[in-house]
Hints:
By secondary structure, the protein is an alpha/beta fold. It has a domain at 12-113 and 171-197: Class I glutamine amidotransferase (GATase) domain (Rossmann fold, 3-Layer(aba) Sandwich). It has helices at 24-40, 89-92, 96-108, 118-124, 140-146, 172-185, 187-197; strands at 12-17, 46-52, 58-59, 65-66, 70-71, 80-83, 111-115, 132-133, 151-152, 158-160, 164-167. The strands form three sheets. The chain has a seven-stranded mixed beta sheet with strand order 5-2-1-6-7-11-10, with helices on both faces.
Amino acid sequence: xxxxxxxxxxxxxxxxxxxxxxxxxxxxxxxxxxxxxxxxxxxxxxxxxxxxxxxxxxxxxxxxxxxxxxxxxxxxxxxxxxxxxxxxxxxxxxxxxxxxxxxxxxxxxxxxxxxxxxxxxxxxxxxxxxxxxxxxxxxxxxxxxxxxxxxxxxxxxxxxxxxxxxxxxxxxxxxxxxxxxxxxxxxxxxxxxxxxxxxxxx
Length: 202
């Protein structure tokens, strides 16, 4: 198997938030993209982990059990923070500890990316103010209601606003993650990752 060649020396830590009623592909899709990119490059570029509020099993949408690699108490900072969606985001936005953690991580992260209704979490902590953003097509009205200073985008798989990237529903998180691989490492790295995953962007 050929490996991705890149002169970029940085090993970026990717933290993907998990919680009860998280949508499975919202977190698993980005995990696969960043982890495969690292695998193809001999474990370079990204170290990807799941992060939970507590060290316990979380129950995702449709019953998948998920145990995070790290917790808030570990005190790690993440270069790329991924906030997935799912029905659980409705409760999550009222969890002051989680919102404070997301806001603190965003203050030092290179990029924060939401998938699906994870955009509601970013909106709650003010990361989408004055920015364009997207989310699942059934959640766009909730995102629009979150703030008049968010410009909702209806017709794109992902929206790149520099330090903040938002993705549409579920599978769009794969597109957004491949976009970030391309942005950070170049076309060859993204192309090899997509080819290995046998994924064709929507």
